[in-house]
Amino acid sequence: MWFWIMLRIVLSPILYLVWLPKNSGMRNVPLRGPALLVSNHLSFADHFFGPLPLMRPILFIGKREYFTGKGIKGLISKGFFTGVGVVPVDRTGGSAAEAALETGLRILREGKLLGIYPEGTRAPDNRLYRGKTGVARLALASRVPVIPMAMINTFELMPPGQALPNLRPRPGVRFGKPLDFSEYYGQEDDREVLRKVTDQIMMAVRELSGQEYVDRYAADVKAELSGRAPRPSSDDDGDDD
């Protein structure tokens, strides 16, 4: 919460003055009550420019490892991810997917905005990758509005591995109209339904972002590019960032 307050009071004027972000669709996000915001994930800069135009903070689900590091680096990591609204997943007694689902449902039951990156990690390039079905499970189990959200130009603004952002191009975020999945309520354990709902959400994000779509998991592509074998993962794993 403190980061969101700082973003509004201190960083917001600076971000608008320096980068002139071009945002749209904010009226599609409810002013109160729960909603699931589903976004592409292009850059570290998404943490700043995504929530920027909203009058409410967005909470995200993240790995507990972000909060358990040792020394100065660990303190910095914990402080930053706490500040940007990342809620650690408690994996005690269950899988990462189930822990992420329970954490997400708890946030939504509290009437808050929950953000999720269904690609599971930052994209290795400027394309949109296959979504993991955890987003569909959350949408059907919570029965809250599902709002597609597209980050624009943040990949060019701050490419992977770059410590500081460029001054151009103009970044931005677009919020689409809420998606209705009420016909699938009660079917959150049906894998075919989960894949169908996930793909519909990803296509809505694609329409907003204009990205090329790749029907592969981003984590697998990143592993290949780095010369590593793709690690086994569940289709509904939580975010890796």
Automatic annotation (TrEMBL):
Phospholipid/glycerol acyltransferase domain spans which residues? 35-154
Matching entries from InterPro entries are given as:
Plipid/glycerol_acylTrfase
Where do the coiled-coil regions begin and end?
A: none
GO CC field: plasma membrane
SMART domains given in the database record: PlsC
Question: Which SUPFAM superfamilies does the record cross-reference, listed alphabetically?
Answer: Glycerol-3-phosphate (1)-acyltransferase
A Pfam family annotated for this chain is: Acyltransferase
Q: Does the keyword Heme apply?
A: no
Q: Which UniProt keywords apply?
A: Acyltransferase, Transferase
GO MF term set: 1-acylglycerol-3-phosphate O-acyltransferase activity
One GO biological process term is: phosphatidic acid biosynthetic process
From what superkingdom does this record's organism come? Bacteria
Can you name this protein? Answer: 1-acyl-sn-glycerol-3-phosphate acyltransferase
Record lineage: Bacteria, Bacillati, Actinomycetota, Actinomycetes, Streptosporangiales
